[in-house]
Write a structure and sequence with these properties.
Layout (H helix, E strand, L loop, with lengths): L6 E3 L3 H13 L4 E5 L7 H5 L2 E4 L5 H5 L2 H11 L3 E2 L10 H9 L3 E2 L4 H8 L1 H10 L7 E3 L4 H11 L3 E5 L9 E3 L5 H16 L4 E5 L5 E9 L5 E13 L2 E7 L6 H17 L4 E9 L5 E7 L6 H8 L3 H9 L16 E8 L1 E2 L5 E2 L2 E2 L2 E3 L6 E5 L6 E2 L6 E9 L2 H13 L2 E3 L5 H9 L1 H4 L7 H4 L11 H13 L2 H8 L14
Parallel strand pairs: 1-2, 1-4, 2-3, 4-5
Antiparallel strand pairs: 6-9, 7-8, 7-9, 10-11, 10-13, 11-12, 12-15, 13-14, 15-22, 16-17, 18-21, 19-23, 20-22
Helix pairs in contact: 5-6, 6-7, 13-14
Amino acid sequence: MKTITKVLIPNRGEIACRILRTLNRMDIPGVIVYHPVDADSPAVEMALEKVELNGATPVSAYLDVEQIIKACKQTGADAVHPGFGFLAENAGFARRLEQEGILFIGPLPETIEMMGDKVAARTFCLENNFPLAPSVAQSGTDKDFIASAKKIGLPLLIKAAAGGGGKGMHIVQEPGALEQAVLLAKDEAQRFFGNDLVYAERFLEKSRHIEVQVLADHYGNVIHLGERECSIQRRFQKIIEESPAPALDSKLRRRICAAAVEITRKAGYRNAGTVEFILAPDGEFFFLEMNTRLQVEHPVTEMVTGLDLVELQICIARGETLPLTQKQVRAKGHAIELRLYAEDPENDFLPSTGQLLVYQMPSGDAVRVENGFTRGMTVSTAFDPMLAKLIVHGNDRTKAIELGLKALEGTLVLGVTTNADYLARILCFPAFAASKIHTGFIPMHAQALKPPQLSIEERKLLLAAAALSSREFIDPAFNVPEPYAFFGDWRN
């Protein structure tokens, strides 16, 4: 058993706020490290103790291992919760903390090295007879790799071995496009992850992206908390996730979850993790990767199970046994997460930047908002363009979709373009409502998901309605100053 007296969070935005909420409830002091661009962020305001980081860029500051260790020693933090992104799956960081006697709330460094690297994880699964799609890892020259990749057959997906977030991924439909795709993937992999190793796997068209949340303690106990559907993606990046996965029969669900548990157990995994699979239209499923950290979409699992995954991570890190068995896991209802991005869906989802002039998030018992911004903050290109996550929970999927639309109606952002309307159009789309979803859903329905074209008169009416519903417009326009107010309802 290990004691945790203070936890440092080397992260920012909504995940930093999320971790702080659990720490506060558990009466464990939390420390935030931050770059000056985040000085006025909710996470920094929320933390009782904070340490400023220096760096040539904001991202480089959050990736500075030595600064973070120094901040731990300065504040007396004896544990670190990395959240997701940045150093969350960095085995070197976890090992440095271990050397300094600081507890890493996550798996062991050796496990991150084995399962966090996609090529190493696939080798592990191959050696242990877990289902894998036909693939080949880069070895030797680019020419040799391309020759080996051609033998798998088209279409192909070229992927960065150390990748994530859809970076360094390219679909190849024609033989002549393979060489260029490999070069692009290698270049992106080097730029984003500092590692240009790539691999190729058979691209399964109209497949689904199913992932399983797993938990494992230090005593050999491994359970799953059900699966999540993550097939609604743009540019390989998820924008809508839900649990449970729709249109998945109980037998197939049990097989996928059982495979995730066995992979986790065989890997000697500890703490919370996610095993991801590709589900082919014929019902076959294949290991995709394992995320050795908390997932962005973990709230949908929390909503249906009633569990706090951050709390469970901390308990496991302290050396406690899992507080529940597989039979005690109960999932109720249906949850959907909508990722609100500062981006323009009508311009190839390009990020949008600017100051948040109006920033209103929905509220109510049926919606949970994970948010890292406030009005007046500036959205820049320094970080991922996700603004917030809207999570709803209903008795069934139909009710969850209805609640999701209501949450989007209660979302108002001015100053940057967002994907809020686009998310609403997906929720309303007949194929989505009918659970006819797959990873190619967005490109397949690109034209149908475009916004309706409005006439000039309709645009004028909408702008007038928006202005009349805004306090910022109404107050200066219609409040009458003294002495004129004395005369009653007088207008100049």
